[in-house]
Amino acid sequence: MSSRLAKGGRKIDRNTKVTFTFNGRQMRGFAGDTLASALLANDQMLVGRSFKYHRPRGIVASGAEEPNALVGLGEGARFEPNQRATTTELFDGLVATSQNHWPSLEFDVGAINSKLSRFFPAGFYYKTFMGPRAFWKHVYEPIIRMSAGLGKAPTEKDADTYEHLYAFADVLVIGGGVAGLTAAAEAGRAGARVLLMEQTAHWGGRAPVDGGQVNGAPVADHIDALVAELAAMENVTMRLRCMGAGVYDHGYVLGYERLTDHAPQSGVPRHRLWRIRAAQVVTATGAIERPLSFAGNDIPGVMLASAVRDYIVDLGVSPGDRVAIVTNNDDAYRTAFAVKDAGLEVAVILDARPAGGGDLAIRARELGIRVEVNRAIAHVSGTKRVTGIAICAQAGSGSVIEEIACDAVAMSGGWSPVVHLWSHCGGKLIWDEAGAMFRPDAERAPTSHDGKPFVICAGAANGAFSLSDVLVDARAAGGSAVSATGYSAGEEVATTVEDVAEIPLAPVWIMPAGATGKLRSKSWLDYQNDVKVSDIQLAAQEGFESVEHAKRYTTLGMATDQGKLSNINGLAVLSNALNEAIPQVGTTTFRPPYTPISLGSIAGAARDAAFQPLRRTPMHSWHEANGVKWEPVGHWRRPFCYTRDGETAHEAVTREVNGTRNRVGLLDASTLGKLVVKGPDAGKFLDLLYTNMMSTLKPGRCRYGLMCDENGFLMDDGVVARIDENTFLCHTTTGGADRIQAHMEEWLQTEWWDLKVHVVNATEQYAQIGVVGPQARQLLEVLGTASIDAETLPFMAWADRVVAGIPVRLYRISFSGELSYELAVPAGQGLALWQSLIEAGRAFDAVTYGTEALHVMRAEKGFIMIGDETDGTVIPQDLNLDWAISKKKTDFLGKRGQTRSFLADPNRWKLVGLETTDSSVIEDGAYVLAEGQNDKDQRNMQGRITSTYYSPTLGRGIAMGLLKGGMSRLGDVVQVTRMSGGPVSAKIVDPVFYDKAGDKQNV
Amino acid sequence: MLLLNCPCCGVTAEETEFHGGGEAHVKRAGPASEDAAFETYLFHRENPKGVHFERWRHVTGCGKWFLAARDTATLEVFGTYSAQTLAPPEVLLARIRAKRPGFTWRDVQ
Amino acid sequence: MSDLTGPAPVSALHGASYDGYVRVAEEPMRAMITLRGDISGTLGKAAKALTSLDVPGQREVTVMTEKAIAWMSPDELLVMLPYADLPDALGTLEQKLSDPMASAVDVSHARAIFSITGPDALVREVVAKLAPVDMAPAQFRPGMFRRTRLAQVPAALWLPAPGRVELICFRSVAEYVFTILCDAAKPGSEAGLFA
């Protein structure tokens, strides 16, 4: 069983006790424990169930590479699934629950899958669940959904907050072990701006556990000195609990800082996402130990050898009383020494190499530890906990030589450099045959905007494993970073290093080498996704030979650990099955993030009010206080209508239309674009942009204009006002303001740069208020507006006046067909003017109206709307707007496009009005049916509805649409689609439904 | 996420300050153009794996357009230059030739 | 339309402020005029005449309390003055800018102005949470003017003095900008980026 040791544990504070719960059971630990070490201290090795077969799973590793110990942490609004117990720092009150089992961790019904495992090999779902088809919706899918996934999704809104931080550095060092500290010190001493980050809560990495001496003292002392030196440098910034999540183009790196996971509190951001730009990135990310693939290597109690000694030395926890060690390399012998030093028993060291190990093996024997060479594990005994191992020869098929009792197995298949960050941005790998590992190919580094390498690996991440090799390599890496950023290295600091020499490992990809099929079907590669050696061999057999295919077919490496313990072992088995060399098989793509990061950190502060930049007009608060129903128009909020006294929206719109047409209505039109186009060539420029002739517009006058793109399609419309000889003000639609300004700048800067004209976006400078209706003029006169009789200010003219004591520009333009003025007022006086109009408007029983009433009224008058009558494929001629297209101009955007045969085709659908024979309102998106069907058995169409409303003015439904034959079909009755009840009949009418003669405007 | 240097205001900023604008030096085919030339103008674009000339606008910056020479495969940016030019400047082309001998892009080499 | 008549104009947030680990405040309206044209010629002379300040170089701003000239682009300057000076300024420009290629547009109402004040390192850090700009003291100094984005909106910022950042954004998004600045300045979220 696993237990707390009476002494030891570098990272724990035995004076500070911590209480936590696991699956409702209260347990105790110490400050400095991880949840994993505390669980082990409480003899809780069993921590979960595997994804597919629901096999019992135990803690395997001590760090971020942990595949099994995934728990749900916290409760309610702070609940989060799939958290690794090995990277969760213990705190008082921590609540953890294991996952993927029912009814309990100890007794899980899902384990039946394991008994039936031969029916669930890799890719079984490609061959099953085929039929009957009806079963999919009601049988297969519900069952699969219930059993899918590991943890449960949170159900409450996240109570924590998150933020981003932009940071810049000359040299970013990722990894705070001895290699990272060394490289950072090199760069810091040279005066570079250094950012150093480490994902755990401690500096120093593996070195203090693995031993070695620097300058005659334990390496831990050297580490402390480096940390102190770095902390004192002003040009160095250091962060613990900060992981390098991904390396992207041009030196962009994401750092994931966990601020409060180890000590939860409100009011402090939980995670901070560092958005870093560095000239050089040093990845001192260490290496991860590989499991060995033997039958039963997933039974709780089988762990990585380095993890066993990490728990003993760093955390004062014994994973087991009697530990068997199985290895293909010298490094694992260190675990035997740690076990023995802690007063525990080493059952045996099984060295798979025929000649065994080097100096460390000699030392083991001297200590009286039993060491067997050329030996392997045939299988492990136990189900929920290791009870013993069966020993065989590494050569051969696994005949059992001996069985011995033990309660923990420490396995080591060698070490894989952590090359993920190097690979994210295109760094290539080379296969090191002697070391049986992929390591970075320095000749093919990721390159930056200048084409030069910007990532350097250091230490174990670069394939250097002994302490002396690591220090040399890290110093060189630091030095490279220094010169690449234009600094000069400081003086070389002499160091002497003492460590133990190791002899090479022997690659062991299957244990034993000739294992039977039965053994291979219990030799696990991917613990989280339940992929075994036999699955990879099956994939190869079935023709999934590319490593990318084998990965997806078996799901090897596709779990939340991204294959940290399984990728290399898996591709070695694949290469063996294909009889190809490992480098030929290659690796799958490494993708960020290195380990999962919270969605909250990615969103940062962009939630609730900060989710998106809402744009508010100067009258926003008035609308808010007066029954507004908002409509989003891009990021703007415009009133859709204003409801009062329990009205429905429909009733409100009806009231607004009637009030405006009968008396006077007020509209907030501030969001429409206002672009000032100024210069000697302004008229010439606008002639190129609009279909109309704009240069002939006289100062003081306005003209409605259309803008097309070069394809010929109508893309925006608006009223242009001529301010003076060289100045025009172009109105655009709300959605068009920024877009049309960008469009103008694009043409001025990239094509017609000889034109002497400037564009200034004045949209936000002015609030704009529509005063609309037969009593509009009277209302304005009551507020002191001078000289706005029909003669002085005719339709389509503008003038500067003073209204309610405020200077405004009055445009007499109309989108409703009524007598109508738009008042442009400086935004800071917009609300004041609006309130004056409201106040004075009471005497007229004026209404405020929103976008829906606006749309209804324009439709009653047959005015088109961009985005309704246009959809990016409609040209002005389709909308009977030929009059707006100048015949005199030799060039304007869209002119050439419109001559194309498809756009000049007389059979194009053209604008008509429709009135249903029963007065009902046609549905949005309806089509006009034609006779017969096409070759796909679909009903033929001859038109579509572009706008449809209830018209309060006419007391019936009205619609506009595009119809084959256009207005030549006047009087025809057509069939229009409906969601239910069959098609509805509609008569083709003039789209100007109301006041055809325009009398209401002629005042 | 790219780093780009805007030649108009001198800022070197991350890609989020900019907006890509497609291929550079596209020749506009106006109202008198033949169908083939107009089709090319609207729809035909280079799609190289390698050296490419493209337009960018510094939208949350000075607002100006500029042009860039960039390797679409390695993302190396050879240089940025004024949008008011009809062809890449010789200085820039020399730099590109040194790094990518024998490159061609439309009729530029 | 350039008289100072009628009710006094209001800023977007009526001078809202927040005391987090730095102080975030909406500043009162200022006169702001966009000048387009030849900076080295008539435009620059006009700006100088209005403010008595020197014309700034590329990406610089010349400041004296509420008066400033900011370099916005190769052909654009932004002149800032006390709001009361606006009518006279626009009048002066009408006379001085005879070059038809030069334009002056009043944008005083189109913008919102914010100040962030407090210890210099913390003020810089609040900006660093929102803008992809190197805010280190050695990299961003008083006299520099940077247009960039603040989270999801365009903005421009400068350092009138150590421990003070001023930034401008569009009026319509003033509330959004205030919200994100306050979030960034929340006590407890100090990042300690600049010691």
Automatic annotation (TrEMBL), chain A:
Residues 910-995 form the Aminomethyltransferase C-terminal domain. Residues 170-422 form the FAD/NAD(P)-binding domain. InterPro entries: 2Fe-2S-bd_N (IPR042204), FAD/NAD-bd_sf (IPR036188), FAD/NAD-binding_dom (IPR023753), GcvT/YgfZ/DmdA (IPR028896), GcvT/YgfZ_C (IPR029043), GcvT_C (IPR013977), GCVT_N (IPR006222), Sarcosine_oxidase_asu (IPR006277). Coiled coil: none annotated. Residues 521-604 form the SoxA A3 domain. The keyword Transcription does not apply. Pfam families: Fer2_4, GCV_T, GCV_T_C, Pyr_redox_2, SO_alpha_A3. Keywords: Oxidoreductase. Residues 619-889 form the GCVT N-terminal domain. PANTHER family: AMINOMETHYLTRANSFERASE, AMINOMETHYLTRANSFERASE, MITOCHONDRIAL. This is Sarcosine oxidase subunit alpha family protein.
From TrEMBL, chain B:
GO terms for molecular function: sarcosine oxidase activity. One of its GO terms (biological process) is tetrahydrofolate metabolic process. Pfam families: SoxD. Coiled coil: none annotated. InterPro entries: SoxD, SoxD_sf. This is Sarcosine oxidase subunit delta. It comes from Pseudooceanicola spongiae.
UniProtKB/TrEMBL annotation, chain C:
Transmembrane segments: none annotated. It holds the Pfam family SoxG. InterPro entries: SoxG (IPR007375), TrmE/GcvT-like (IPR027266). Gene3D superfamilies: Heterotetrameric sarcosine oxidase (3.30.70.1520), Probable tRNA modification gtpase trme, domain 1 (3.30.1360.120). This is Sarcosine oxidase subunit gamma. It comes from Pseudooceanicola spongiae.
